[in-house]
Amino acid sequence: MRIMIATAGSRGDVAPYTGLGAVLRSAGYDVALATTDAFAPLARGAGLEFRRLPADTRGRTAAGGRRELMRAAAAFVTELGEGFADAVADGTDLLLLSATTAPLGWHVAEATGVPSLGVYLQPTAPTGDFPPVVTGSRSLGRLGNRAAGRLALRMTDRIYAQAVRRLRHRLDLAPLSAPLMRRRQERADWPVLYGFSTALVPRPSDWSAGLEVVGAWEPHHDEAARLPAELEDFLRAGPRPVLIGFGSMAAGEGERLSGIAVRALRRAGLRGILQSGSAGLAADGDDVLTVGDVPHALLFPRLAAVVHHAGAGTSAAALRAGVPSVTVPVAADQPFWAGRLAAIGAATAAIPFGALTAERLADALGEVVRQRTYAAAAATAARHMATEDAAGRVLKAVRDLTG
Questions:
Q1: Residue 139 vs residues 47, 186, 240: alpha-carbon distances, Å
Q2: d(Cα 364, Cα 181) in Å, to the nearest integer?
Q3: How far apart are CA 149 and CA 135, in angstroms?
Q4: What is the torsional sign of CA 370, 295, 382, 125?
Q5: Where does the Glycosyltransferase family 28 N-terminal domain lie (predicted)?
Q6: CA distances to 40, 149, 199, 280, 316 from 244, in Å
Q7: Which of 214-247 are b and which e, b meaning 16 or more Cβ less than 10 Å from the residue's Cβ?
Q8: Which of 270, 250, 227 is nearest to 353 (CA)?
Q9: Element (H, E) at 363
Q10: Maximum CA pair distance of the chain?
């Protein structure tokens, strides 16, 4: 049986599915990962077939006004839809769809008769427990949160409207709008497995049947992999350092952010590792080291703390390692995850990206490293996450769905 996992977005929207795909492959399934060109090495490195989705994520991860972000998202989705069916349908027996690909994948599933299952990284279904994750707003009360959640889905459907019209025409399907297809899926209790930990977000009691929280999927990494020798030497040369990185955020701001990071580390009296990322962070010195991509699973357990943008994947990786965080959210769902980390005591209050200064970062670093309650909360969450068989839950769902 061939399983197709389809996802698109930044690295954090793709990497968790490499670990999930590897587990499914080890269970005997033929697994392909459909995503954009930039992440072909991730797919192949996990032993998965790569299928190209026709979209370009470069330059679309920066923060901006709501209208600008909506336009950029609509352009990305329209591009994504152009060859989506060709990429995911050929020879596929089961579709696993992310939150970004499901509004397109539903139509492919209808046209081909292939069963599908949602595998989402963010809680998208409306709930009274919290407002929609993409708004970054405070709670509006249970009724207000649910209303805002429905509004967020309507805005999502507007982004997908043109791509859906074109896709259904290409698939020779009768016209059906994006909102009507979503309502059809909701009435059918289309199953979605959410890939985040209940340590961060317990399953809302007002969610409908078929929506489950299974735990965070860990990105694949080669078990024989080792950290670079220079990084090993740095880790062994003194007290546990702090990692500072912004993932795929903040492109073009490397010089400013590097200066802030180095000044903050020295003000707090800490050693640091800068992860270059899209921002291009870089600095040299006896107390600071610059690295590129390294497996979080190997590095994070050896740190005193992690400064990050609060993407879903990095937030989960820090917790899994039992390491506290200082969060600097930039956009989209990042303020939500930053708030959740702070709520369970595993992070300081978030520093909004636009308000980041060396002084604020130094104060937060001093607090998170020296007040042991943060590390204790992170360790408690790590123990909880170790009990969640996230990939195993998906494997069981796949077997139940396919017989």
A1: 42, 24, 37
A2: 45
A3: 9
A4: positive
A5: 3-64
A6: 26, 33, 24, 12, 16
A7: bbbbbbbbeeeeebeeebeebbeeeeebbbbbbb
A8: 250
A9: helix 358-370
A10: 65
- Residues near 331 by Cβ (< 8 Å), separated by ≥ 6? 61, 62, 63, 64, 69, 249
Q: From CA 207, how far away is CA 209, in angstroms rounded?
A: 7
Q: Which 8-state DSSP code applies to residue 285?
A: B
Q: For the chain, which domains are there?
A: 2-216+388-402 (3.40.50.2000), 229-385 (3.40.50.2000)
Q: Could you report the per-residue pLDDT of 209-238, keeping only the tens digit for each? A: 899 999 999 999 888 889 999 999 999 999
Assigned token pair, 38 = 């930039």
pLDDT in tens, 353-400: 989 999 999 999 999 999 999 999 999 999 999 999 999 999 999 999
Q: Is the separation of the CB atoms in 68 and 60 below 8 Å?
A: no
Q: What is the DSSP string of 30-62?
A: EEEEEE-GGGHHHHHHTTPEEEE-S---TT-SS
The SS3 of residue 149 is helix
Give backbone dihedrals phi and psi of 46, rounded to 5 degrees, phi first. -90, 5
> Across-strand partners of 30?
2
Distance CA 75, CA 78 (A): 5
- The model's pTM: 0.92
Which two structure tokens, joined as six digits, stand for 236? 């062994």
The runs of H, that is alpha helices, within 171-219 are 178-187
Tell me the chain's radius of gyration from C-alpha atoms.
21
Per-residue pLDDT of 289-305, as tens digits, reads 999 889 899 999 999 99
Does the pLDDT of residue 62 top 50, yes or no?
no
Whether 226 contacts 261, CB under 8 Å: no
Distances (CA, A) of 154 to 30, 58, 185, 242, 386: 35, 26, 14, 41, 36
CA–CA distance, 308 with 296 (Å, rounded to integer): 12
What's phi and psi for 68, nearest 5 deg? Answer: -65, -40
Give the confidence band of 282 by pLDDT, cuts at 50, 70, 90.
Answer: confident
Q: Are 104 and 86 in contact (CB under 8 A)?
A: no
Mean pLDDT rounded to a whole number for the chain: 91
d(CA 171, CA 150): 28
Residue 174 in tokens: 């009768």
Contacts of 110 (CB under 8 A, 6+ apart): 171, 173
